[in-house]
Amino acid sequence: MTSDPSNLQIAAAFDELADLYELDGAIVHRVLAYRGAAKAAREATVSIAALTRQGTVTSLPGIGKTLEEKIVALLDTGEIPAAVKLRAKYPAGLLEMTRLPGLGPKRARRLFDELGIESLAMLRAAAEQQKLRDVKGFGAKFEQSVLSSIDAGIGERPAQRVLLHRALTAGEQIVAALRAHPAAERVELAGSARRQADSVKDLDIIATASDPGALVRALADLELIESASAPNENAARGRTHTGLPVDLRVVAPENFGNLLQHFTGSAAHNVALREAAVRRGLHVSEYGILDDATGETLRCATEEEVYERLGLTYPEPELREDRGELAPGFVAPRLVTVEDLRGDLHMHTTASDGRNTIEEMARAALAHGYEYIAITDHSATHGFGDHVTPDELMRQIERVADVNERLGGAIRVLAGTETNILPSGAPDYDDELLAQLDWVIASVHTSFGMPAEEMTKRMVAAIEHPWIDAIGHPTGRKISSRQPYALDVDAVIDAAARSGTMLEINSAPDRRDLNDVHARAAVEGGVTLLIDSDAHGAERLEHVRWGVATARRAWVEPAHVANTRPWPQFAALRKRARK
After folding, report:
1. Do 142 and 172 have their domain in common?
2. Which of 68, 246, 317, 529 is deepest in the core (most CB within 10 A)?
3. Using omega within 30 degrees of 0 as the cis cutoff, is the peptide bond preceding 514 cis?
4. Where does residue 408 rank: exposed (0-12), middle (13-18), buried (19+ CB within 10 A)?
């Protein structure tokens, strides 16, 4: 190799090795070790190759001496010997097959062993000929899924967008580093990251500087930047160690507002803005606002000046999606903030799949300034990991009472559950037990693939249940890996408004569910929302940042969110308080 591999190349090498070992039937711990190493490499913000050459790569979580040896071999020879050996045993097309949803290395190996399928082309042919349903564990639905996935190009190309929380981790660090440069005056993040979108494809940074050339050259020298193209006088392009493109533009101070507005608004927002300007005899661009009547160009140092000159109310960045923020009569909402939240009603402890005890979660929440929290460990039929049996839930109620006594009223801890919604729509604890709790949030954790009509009936039945206070992550989506359930969201919103059941914006950064469109529809439909962390560790209480970001994109104000209320007001919203 002519140069050291990037973090993404190292991650890809470990991902491939994990897939090859899984194809080969290796013990699960070995496979997981390589998957963990791939994740560590992919998310590292500094060069893995440089750390390896310095002898400090084992300081990264998930990378020990054995994995260090593999990286050294990759740096020295361009290959990992174990991967070379395993590649000789299995066709390259078999690895492409493993990337399809619902397949994976073990199931791909079964198709290889039983039907001799070793490529996406052979898999497509077998699905079209209805041969896959003859293999135990596969069926007609899987055949259709295979054809849909291949038609969509899945298995042939990697995802190109990065979840917001990962993108902002890099973006905020780059902005901070550039602000620290002696030539920097103003440095701001723009683009979809500033609008707090679910995911981003690149980072746009707008700056002013006393020496523009010095600032653009500084981008390439940042430890966070893996590579950068040759800069010009006012712009530079780079790429982070996680593969995220970064564009830096330095502009004169009097044009800063024009450029920041141009690179923050979505394409739809900016098109609508230009059309509104034309109706006033104006033309808007990143360079300024041209007045047709006078031929003069107004340059704006702030975004507020841009919107004011166009006769428009200033919209917060999260609103700039052309969803009414440029309409006549638009009144800017007072968007909810993290500081508005007074409680968190969805979190897990060591009783199920969390990493901290009840008291540790309570003390962490107290440090966040919360007045109340609910402990909502997973219920008996949760399909994954540890869960809480009915007898254990009774003991959990006692443990919560003990913690409340020890904390002396500093924070109110509610005994709750995240009960699984069974296919019938019933919770998986009986009503007698649910009645003894302070709080019940219900979520779908099993039988995801129900048809839309059945899934909607299931959710509506749960919403109408007398002991279920809220519905958690209502559509079940995972932004980068799982589509929402087939579900009539309008019917869910109607049922929630009718029954007084809260709907959650789950703040897990790969969920953000309800999404912004559905959350806005819920508010307009008269539903009260929750913004919860779904924290599985004390450090993840901070995830509410991403739920709040979604709420802001949905035009949500504090009054629309139940857990912005002080405890007496929140307590009265629970169904059990209305009995």
Report:
1. no
2. 529
3. yes
4. exposed
CA distance 523 to 555: 9
**Residue 345 shares a structural domain with residue 313:** no
Final residue in a domain of this structure, among 120, 151, 182: 151
Q: Please provide residue 350's backbone torsions phi and psi, each rounded to the nearest 5 degrees.
A: -65, -10
Contacts (Cβ under 8 Å, ≥6 apart) of 17 = 34, 70, 80, 82, 83, 86
- Supply the range of the domain harboring residue 522: 338-578
257 falls within a domain = no
Amino acid identity for residue 173 in this structure: Q
Domain membership flag for residue 331 = no
CA 524, 530, 531, 536 torsion-angle sign? negative
CA distance 430 to 334: 41
Q: At what angle do helices 7-23 and 28-43 cross, to 10 degrees?
A: 170
Give the count of beta carbons closer than 10 Å to the beta carbon of residue 571. 16
Give 220-245 pLDDT, tens digit per residue: 999 899 888 878 889 999 999 888 89
Tokens at 46, concatenated: 């500094």
Please, what is the Cα angle at 480 between 477 and 482, to 5 degrees?
A: 40
Specify whether 199 is located in the same domain as 246: yes
CB 172 within 8 A of CB 201: no
Q: Does 328 fall in a domain?
A: no
d(CA 139, CA 230): 53
Tell me how many domains the chain contains: 4
The model's pLDDT over 293-336, given as tens digits with 9 standing for 90+, comes to 999 999 999 999 999 999 999 999 999 999 999 999 999 999 99
141, 169, 327, 152: which is closest to 246 by C-alpha?
169
Q: What is the pLDDT of residues 104-154, one digit of tens each?
A: 788 888 888 889 988 888 888 888 898 888 888 788 878 887 787 777 665
Which of residues 226, 250, 274 is at a domain's end?
250
Same domain, 440 and 480: yes
End-to-end, the C-alpha distance of the chain in Å comes to 71
Q: 502, 528 in Cβ contact below 8 A?
A: yes
Question: Do 446 and 515 belong together in one domain?
Answer: yes
